Amino acid sequence: MEVIEKVFLCKVSELAENQVKKIDNAEFGDIAVYNLGGQYYATADLCTHATASLAEGDIEDDMITCPVHWGQFHIPTGKAQGFPCEIDLRTYPVEIEGDEIFALIEADPALIAKG
Amino acid sequence: MGNIIKTLDVTDSLTGLKDVCDLENGRIAGKIFYDQAIYEQELEKVFARCWLFVAHESQIPKTGDYITTTMGEDEVIVIRQKSGGIKVFLNACPHRGNKVCFAESGSTRGFICNYHGWSFNVEGNLIGQHESGVYEDSNFDKSKWGLKEVAQVDSYKGLVFATFDPEAPTLKEYLGPITWYMDALFDNQEDGTEFVGGCIRSTYECNWKIAAENFVGDILHAGWTHDSAARAMLGGSVAKVSDFEESYSVNWNGHGYEFALDTVGNVAVLGESALNKYLHTIKPSVAERLGDFRSNMIGSVSSCTIFPNFSFLPGQNTVRVWQPRGPNKMELFTWVVVNKSAPEEVKEKWRKGAMMTFSPTGVFEMDDGENWEYCTKTAKGRVTAQQDLFVGLGMDTLLTDTPLPANVYEGQLNEANSRAFYQYWYDMLNSRSWNEVPNRNVGKQEAE
Hints:
The complex is a heterodimer of chains A (115) and B (448). By secondary structure, chain A is mainly β.
């Protein structure tokens, strides 16, 4: 049975515009939460190419650039933009409640990104 | 720090150098310009130990701004840090040694090696690799495998120097009182200097020392070698240097500066009256800042080499490094330096003027190139290479009663600086450590 878990990420006030923040999560793998001009997004934090925290990368428009090999992902869709990033990034729907940002994660073990 | 370069083993000095570098008797021999064994000793005992010019601060103002250059034949990256400091790394990946940066200059978030995707940040730390999992499985400690960092980096008035040798004296100690004279070009206005335009690169089939020695103290060649160039640029011959009432050759630790006090003799050969005018305009403020004496040096007939291979000409404002590329090959890197506070059109005239005179197609540079190449090539002859070459002008011209700092010699038509340059070279080649380098300085540490 599919279970949706609601995972608290951070407070709206903790994430300035065009910033990304890494949220440690042992269960689902670390999560990167983004504020793109007031729109919030969440993706897996681990680059799909090699060991790297995307939250340490740079945001350019709606792309996140991996700090290690400078490959890019489209933040809203997780789409990998080309070599060396060929595998799309897992994305999570985001919900805002008051000052708090949550990710909605399907807790199917087969879909859980490796942390 | 795991990223600091290893110190090299020091080999024994060559024997018989005195036969080819005997300054007490004012003689050297062409062998020092052509011999492979001597050259390899230079790479080890001069270029791997001395402070070498690597950049001007103005070339890399922001975090991640970098230039690439060489220290001897070692390729290096000079990069501005977040902290505002500057680091210098070997431009070689610590995995298989591939070059990691192929550009001459730029601004970057780091360097990624083309071979196996090792990635380094601005601080030189290894932050990841392609197939990072296999390294993690091998318990690889990436903190130990960053880009190799040179032992010391320091700057003087915007000029950045680096040395591979952790035992080298401080830059301040190394330059000594020569900085007092350097200020005539690099500190004559409050805002200091900057480089304009890029790096002009060319190659010569000559030994690097011939060029370095030319700038350390050889104005003697100018009136003869550069006559036609001077006629083209000035409409007349080069100033007759022996007519100057007052001129000097000063040196320290093998660095040398020869100069007259005519304010604009050098700048005049650029053929741009606006530049003469600019120097005359700033001269009163220079006098206030540095005193009357040095205000006469801002564009005068003069030249300087900082041992071993960094040189400049006040007035022409050309700044250069004579990069060794084998005993009989040299790569020349040149830049144009200007006062930051100078008007834009003045800066542009300097850039153009330097290109006209001291660039690969410059009228003065070409005159020198031919001479320097044949000073080297004649030494290909085994017999010719061992014959004495005269370097004995001005043997008894040391001034002992002068308020000027450094070792001061009377007159710029003088080979005192050339001898001091070769003496320091000889001393470095004969010293296995800095403690063994004899102190031959006799002059004052500071101006009186």
